[in-house]
TrEMBL record:
A biological process from GO: biotin biosynthetic process
Keyword Transferase: yes
Leader sequence residues: none
Cofactor(s) the protein needs: pyridoxal 5'-phosphate
Protein name: Aminotransferase class I/classII large domain-containing protein
Pfam families in alphabetical order: Aminotran_1_2 (PF00155)
Family: Belongs to the class-II pyridoxal-phosphate-dependent aminotransferase family. BioF subfamily.
Highest classification ranks of the organism: Eukaryota, Fungi, Dikarya, Ascomycota, Pezizomycotina
Domain of life: Eukaryota
Originating species: Thyridium curvatum
One MF annotation (Gene Ontology) recorded for this entry: pyridoxal phosphate binding
Keyword annotations from UniProtKB, A to Z: Pyridoxal phosphate, Transferase
């Protein structure tokens, strides 16, 4: 029997930090729920894990590979891709991914986080500048912090043109930020194209579900940086599989394939797999192979992971996912109608519940509330899985319960979610026992 040891000084510091976070209702915990619950939380928007045809295609592919290469690795890859982890299968998959998204080349990474960190940490050169949407993902921040870029400057979320907002506190518009750079100390080098300006955005932002104005962003960058040194990078994590023909993404939907410097497509969301790929030119691909530390110093993805990506791309290319996307759009529209109606009926104060009146284009609906944990717990107790999102994941004052819709959600489940939200609102408005009478 081991004897208990005295808590170290470091552990006391760590415990105090955790206690402080708990006091601010910001403590994170790992949780799981029974499979019988209704999923309104995961990012598996197309519910591909429930498609029998995909499951069978995946198993068949693994069986074929096992029989054709009985001594080859099945559960592991053997090392990093630069050592023993590269395979013809991985290279063929990269070519398939690039062709599907109308890109010159692609390079696989083990996750979207790895892809963003690898890309942003090594591609910007000394003297270059990264301009990023203020709500860009944490992985991009981690990549930027280790880059050699001279400056990292945020611009106001999804705001391209200057329309008086630049006089307010906080980041200015994209136009204002780039204009200030051109007029600043590095202006001459930027105008002559000696220093690059990278513009980092997401296709769909995961917390609000809103979509980047990619056409306006491209026009702004092209106009202000005519030397061709403006390079747009789009993280398509939450748009892969959902937007564009057969789910090719927002860049393809807007026909900007030749205008965007790089795209990051991740497979752990609507694709129902894991891993990610950077879409870029062959030169950038080779540069990443030589300098992206998150690729060089990590074990390559094993065959089961690669196989899941391949069968999912085969499924998208067949057009069979189109029906799932159409059903998902109907589910999103109905859910928004019901949730917005609650705010209208009860005239809810914004601090209690607010839903954006615009019909969402993505499967993400933010229920803004000052009591996100209370609302989420209330729904979870009724078998409806939603998650509270609090600061620092979102800005203070923008706490919410995030609702993610899926192709497999039924209208009955959506109605049950709306009923639970309305019951919660009714309870908090009356501070009385929740009535059993149906109010939808």
């Amino acid at each position: 029997m081991t004897q208990s040891r005295e808590t170290s000084g470091l552990e006391k510091v760590l415990a105090a930090r955790l206690a402080d976070r708990q006091a601010r209702s910001q403590l994170r915990r790992l949780t799981s729920f029974p499979s019988s619950t209704a999923d309104f939380s995961s990012n598996s928007y197309l519910s591909l894990q429930l498609v029998p045809e995909l499951r069978q295609a995946y198993i068949s592919l693994l069986e074929r590979h096992a029989s054709s290469s009985p001594t080859g690795p099945l559960f592991g890859s053997g090392g990093s891709r630069l050592l023993d982890g590269n395979t013809p299968f991985a290279e063929s998959l990269e070519a398939q991914i690039a062709a599907f998204h109308h890109a010159p080349a692609s390079l696989l990474f083990n996750s979207g986080f790895d892809a963003n960190v690898g890309l942003f940490s090594c591609v910007p050169q000394p003297g270059d500048i990264i301009v990023y949407d203020e709500l860009i993902h944490a992985s991009v921040h981690d990549g930027m912090r280790t880059s050699r870029a001279a400056q990292r400057i945020p611009f106001r979320h999804n705001t391209v043109m200057s329309r008086g907002c630049d006089k307010d506190q906080g980041p200015g518009s994209l136009e204002r930020v780039i204009t200030d750079l051109i007029q600043g100390e590095r202006g001459e080098a930027i105008k002559r194209g000696r220093n690059a300006v990278f513009v980092a955005v997401e296709g769909v932002y995961s917390m609000d579900g809103d979509i980047a104005p990619l056409e306006q962003i491209n026009s702004c960058v092209t106009r202000l940086l005519p030397a061709g040194n403006g390079h747009i990078i789009v993280d398509e994590a939450h748009s892969t599989g959902l937007f564009g023909d057969q789910g090719r993404g927002l860049v393809c939907e807007y026909g900007l394939e030749d205008s965007v410097f790089a795209r990051v497509h991740t497979f752990g969301k609507a694709m129902g797999a894991s891993g990610a790929a950077v879409l870029c030119t062959p030169v950038v691909r080779e540069y990443l192979i030589n300098y992206a530390r998150t690729l060089i110093y990590t074990t390559a993805m094993p065959l089961p992971g690669l196989a899941s990506i391949k069968v999912t791309y085969d499924f998208l290319a067949s057009g069979k996912a189109d029906v799932l996307r159409a059903n998902l759009r109907n589910i999103v529209t109905r859910a928004h109608e019901l949730l917005l109606a609650i705010c209208t009926r009860h005239k809810t104060a914004p601090e209690l519940l607010h839903v954006d009146p615009d019909v969402p284009r993505s499967p993400i609906i933010a229920l803004l509330t000052g009591q996100p944990r209370s609302l989420a717990t209330y729904c979870q107790q009724r078998g409806l899985i939603v998650r509270p999102i609090v600061a620092p994941t979102v800005p203070k004052g923008r706490e919410r319960v995030r609702v993610c819709l899926h192709a497999a959600n039924s209208l009955a489940q959506v109605t049950a979610l709306a009923q639970a939200v309305e019951d919660w609102v009714w309870h908090h408005k009356t501070a009385e026992t929740i009535p059993t009478k149906t109010r939808l």
